[in-house]
Known about the structure:
The chain is mainly β. Helix content is 6%, strand content 54%. It is built from one helix and six strands. The protein has a six-stranded antiparallel beta barrel with strand order 1-2-3-6-5-4. Strand 4 and strand 5 form a beta hairpin. The longest helix is centred in the first third of the chain and has 8 residues. It starts with 14 loop residues before the first helix and ends in a 6-residue tail after the last strand. The model has no long low-confidence stretch (mean pLDDT 89).
Amino acid sequence: MSGLPPSALPDIPGGAELIAWYGFTPYFHDGLVLSVRLASDGPGEIRIHTWRITDRTDERGYFILDKHAVVTFSLEDIRAVDLRNFNEPTAIHYLFLTVAEDGFEIRWDNVCGTGGPGIEGSVIARRISVSFTPGTPSDA
């Protein structure tokens, strides 16, 4: 996707496997933030339900989604947190994983744009890894 910063996803444990699953580097467009768990004395995690949007449509004209997965970003040694609209579920516009001065930054905004309804923000951690379970949240 042109105009977007390069993703650090290939640089973290589990990133290559997630890219291989989708066949491209995902930016989690329209993905749903399921949970954000942070701890001052241990690891945190961000869980997202995401999928691949195909170029095919169904009988109603909606794009067909496939490769559903629950993706978990594990955060170790959290350095900074900036979250807004914390108690509101959100659909992601884009999620960015970039190299930060002291580790990695994971940042996302909601589909309504900055300041719209739904949790958005960023977390910087010294170490981030990613894992995923194919399927929807009820399957994972």
